[in-house]
Every structure is written in structure tokens, then in C-alpha cells.
Amino acid sequence: MKSKNFVESLNASVEGFIYALKTQRNMRIHFLLGVLVLVAGIYFNLNKTDLLFLFTAICIVIILEMINTSIELTVDLIKDVFHPLARVIKDISAGAVFIAALNALVIGYVVFSRGAAFKIEDLVHQIKQSSWHITFIAFILVLFLVVIGKVFSKKGTPFRGGMPSGHAAFAFSMWTAITFLTEQGIISVLVFIMAVLIARHRVIAKIHNAWEVIVGAVLGTLTTAVVFQILR
User: Fold this and answer.
1) What are phi and psi of 135, to 5 degrees?
2) How many other C-beta atoms are found inside a 10 Å radius of the C-beta of residue 170?
3) 183 tagged catalytic
4) CA 196 to CA 211: how far, in whole Å?
């Protein structure tokens, strides 16, 4: 095989990136979110160190997404018949992307939310005074409890099916948060109706049974209510 010169290698690299961007939905999502986050960082006049942290975190996610795509294509290429280990290999590479995305989420949250002092007392006070911080904490806690519940129930996947219903949990978590934050009852009622419709659709689509949806709704409601009661 003829060795490539620098320009040919650069072209191949760009073509590989473009191919992943064109064919992989998650790649497009991560790239778009990364661009929006960097634009937001520049708009809010973040310092160079914070922008560097954001850029590095975004690059790690995109790089691992491309590696994950390469691994999936390689496994599909060399395996003519289904093998359980092929699925495990793909899941592990996808898990690496998931961890990188969580890391980017945490870095983004810290960079965009940090204010003046970093004393723990000031941080707690700032969180209590910010409904946005409280809502974010509630949603993250609901996500954690839903995933843990599905892991222990050994049914469905972390983000589809199983006990409890994640969609119902988040829908009712949103309703609870809005109920705490708004003084207009009509808004709370409308969001509640929306949450019920989302939960109902999960049952109609046979993704969850009624019990899984009810448990998810209760989990989202109680978790969010407890967070607001403690931090407000």
C-alpha cells in the first residue's frame, strides 16, 4: 500500500469526521450541542480557562463517539453471525461515550453556574436562592433513581422499558417543579394533564405496563417534592 502524504492523510481524516457526522445521529447531536455550548460560553464572556475546559470536554465526547462508531463498524464487518460478545463490545464502547458525556455535563454545569465565592455555605445559599439549581438537582436525582431502579429490577434497558417508567418520572417531576415555582394554578393543571398524557402513551404503546408508569410518576413527584422542600 502506498504511503499517504500529509495532505492525503489530512483529507482522509476530514472525510472520516464528515462520514461520522453524516451517518451517526448521536454524533450530530453531540456536535451541535458542543457548538451551542461554546457559543454560549463566548456570549457570557467566560474566561479562557473555562472555555478551554468546555472545549476539551466537548472534544473528548466527539472523539469517543467516533471511536465508538469505528468499533461498531468493525464488529459488524468481521462478524457474519451473531455472537453475544459482539453486543458486549458495542455496549462497552457506547458506555465510554456515555461517561464522557456525563463528564462534559458536569463540567458545563460547574463552569456556567459558578458565581462568586466557593465556600460551601455560600454555595448552599446560592442553590437555595436559585430555582434553576434546585430543578437541575431534582432532575439529576430522578434520572439516577430511575436508572438504579431499572438495574435492580433487571427488566428493560436503562432508557427504555422496565421498572420504573423514566418518561413518567420526568413528566411528573417537571409538573412538581413547576407547581412549586409558579403561582398560577392553571399552568400547574395544564402541565399535570401533559404528564398524564405522556404516562398514558407509554402504556398504550406497550413500552410499560400501568404499574411501571404509576411507580415512575410517584418516584418523580416525591423525589422532586423532597428536593424542593429541603432546598427552598
Assistant:
1) -65, -40
2) 20
3) no
4) 14
Q: For 200-224, how does the pLDDT look when each residue is reduced to its tens digit (9 = 90+)? A: 888 888 888 889 899 889 998 998 8
Catalytic residue among 8, 15, 65, 183: 65
- Place 130 in a pLDDT band, splitting at 50, 70 and 90: low
Q: What are the Cα distances from residue 61, in Å, to 28, 109, 123, 183?
A: 12, 16, 28, 40
